[in-house]
Amino acid sequence: xxxxxxxxxxxxxxxxxxxxxVNLIAVFLIGGKESATIDRSLTGHAESTKAQFQxxxxxYKQSFQLFVQMMSHEIDRTPDPDQVLAYLKDxxxxxxxxxxxTYDGLYMYYQGxxxxxxDTPYSVYEESGxxxxxxxxxxxxxxGRGEIVFTPxxxxxxxHYILTTISQLQPDGETVFAYDIKMGDIQELVxxxxxxxxxxxxxxxxNGTVIGSTNTDYLGGNLLSSVEExxxxxxxxxxxxxxxxxxxxxxxxxxxxxxxxxxxxxAFRESFGDELSALxxxxxxxxxxxxxxxxxxxxxxxxxxxxxxxxxxxxxxYQGTLTAWLIPFLIVELLLIYVLGRVSxxxxxxxxxxxxxxxxxxxKRLEIALSAAQKAxxxxxxxxxMNARSFKKAMTDSLSSMDKTEGGILIMLDGDHFKQINDTxxxxxxxxxxxxxxQMIVGRIRTIDLASRLHGDxxxxxxxxxxxxxxxRRIISDINHTIEKEAKKRxxxxxxxxxxAVIAHAGDSFNTLSKKADEYLxxxxxxxxxxxxxxxx
Length: 537
Description:
Helices cover 56% and strands 19% of the residues.
């Protein structure tokens, strides 16, 4: 009897050891797979952010190029500086109407004179010691030798936005055009990104200046500065506040806002510690870090002029990469329980079998929940259309499954004057306009075609089994016609959708196609009236 007890204890011990060892091996193997999945996920997130950021910067450049073309034409027509100055001031309200909130003023150095669009008398600049040829925008333009250059941005606390200057030396080697830009579109981009729950995104330039952040108090902070330096920024602002005349309300308000932001950024920089160095050394993958005693995954994507920092809570990352570790781990557990259950035929066997059944039910529930989560993650919440990520995947699958003789057309669409609707009627009405546009797009394509809301008032359509641009043109025309018609019926403001299109063939890259389609979209948007453009037109 005692021998049987000893044998049973040994068997139980062996089973326990087997269970622990197999689980340790599973954790090691699945953990490696999970780590690779996290790296890919964060890398894709950062690269997508960089691509969308570059689109915003390209829009800024195109806006500046419009100004350059207009001024160059005027100088050729009437080279007299006084007439050029009058034209420059006349351009100011026109460009403000075209560019809206991104625009912040025009100026230039021409025939030895500083010409600008705003109404401040030149004597004010003379008294302040302003010398155009000594300003960063002028020096940067001269150093650029004809290239369009961005002067390092800074936070304008008086106006509550990040400000930069675009400038360019003209072919005569003397004239410099410059254009002040509010970089609010970058902040709108960052605010729209929600890849992981409660993530933080910071975009900063080579000097460390934060120009985009999910926390607006970090804007204008220097990510490359030390904790001591960020503390000194607070002290300097507080001292300046003490020395400022209490009757100067605007200056007081500006300094108070600067102090609030500086304190918030100092707290972040203090909790961030030396983690930036660790991220810079881990350029090829995600890095585990701590912020305020909370675990995060960090990823840093460095560019030539700007860097992109992603900080996502570990729990959010694990939830976002659920399929990479949970299902394999459950399978291992189920197989292990099954094998151990086969070894023992006593009461333990029945208990393990019951656990197997229970875990099987748990797995089923998790698979159902996972399927629902995956479906929700593929749909744009506002319109019910595909979101950008699922559209890219679906179109990539279509391209890879095409025969060499087949083709399709990728159409990129963007709303004309949509921002005016948001500004005039509010974001709720703007959302209704977006939903109406989405309904009309879906209603004008076939079931074999694809349609997506990318973000904001931007959409995309992939028309299958055709390479005829007239088909795409007809679709866009029908969409714009029905939007106008339905908007009148519903007594709501209407927009037109401008579009650019390119033909897609088997094996083409989605990123390459979307970039080309965007280029033709920009051409189409020059008229802001539902234009359509494609190669060869």
